[in-house]
Every structure is written in C-alpha cells, then in structure tokens.
Amino acid sequence: MGSIEFLVIVLNLVIVFVAYLSVYPKLAGNSFNRISFYDIFASGLALVIVGSKYWGTGQEFSLIFGQVNWFWFTLITYALIEIPVMLWYFRKNKVEVKIKS
Fold it and tell me: What is the pTM of this model?
C-alpha cells in the first residue's frame, strides 16, 4: 500500500472519529435517523475531498483483492473504518434502529 492509500485512510479515520466523537453526540444523540442523515454528509465529505484530487486521473488504488479507482477505495475503506466505530457508538448511546413500514 502506497502513501496515496495511507492518506485516504487517514482522512477517513479523521472524518469518522470527528463525526462520532464530536458531531453526532451534539447533533444526533441517539436518533438513528439523524445519525444516518449526518453520516451522508460525513461520507460525502470524504468522497468530495478525495474526488477533487483524483477525479479523471485514472489513478488506481490498491485493495487486498485488487486495484480500484478513488471512489471505491474511499467508500470501502470509509465503511470498514466506520462500522466498528458505529457499533460502539450505538451500544454506548443505546441507539435503536427503528424501521417504519
């Protein structure tokens, strides 16, 4: 893994930890719908930052299973970083997932 991949992973780490340790407790609390709403912006921020640098460059990023473009690398690594942090936050704040039909 090269330095480009490392920088994207660090960016994702920073965004996820700022979101779950600072923004979500203040703005979303234990509301699943609010967390989901704000998470669209958090993950979108990562995509916009990385996309502003690599959109249209053809730069490939290395994942365990092969080469992908910037979009998929950012999205997959963001999700892999976010899932354990999200599960911790949900348990800590007793967030209930309520799906309305």
Answer: 0.89
Give the CB-side neighbour count of residue 66, counting CA atoms within 13 A: 3
For residue 29, give the 3-state DSSP assignment. Answer: coil
Are the CB atoms for 8 and 78 separated by under 8 Å? no
Helix (H/G/I), strand (E/B), else coil: 69: coil
For the chain (length 101 residues), average pLDDT per consecutive 10? 86 98 93 93 97 91 90 96 96 84 63
101 falls within a domain: no
pLDDT given at position 86: 96
Q: Maximum distance among all alpha carbons in the chain? A: 45
Give me the domain span that covers residue 56: 3-93
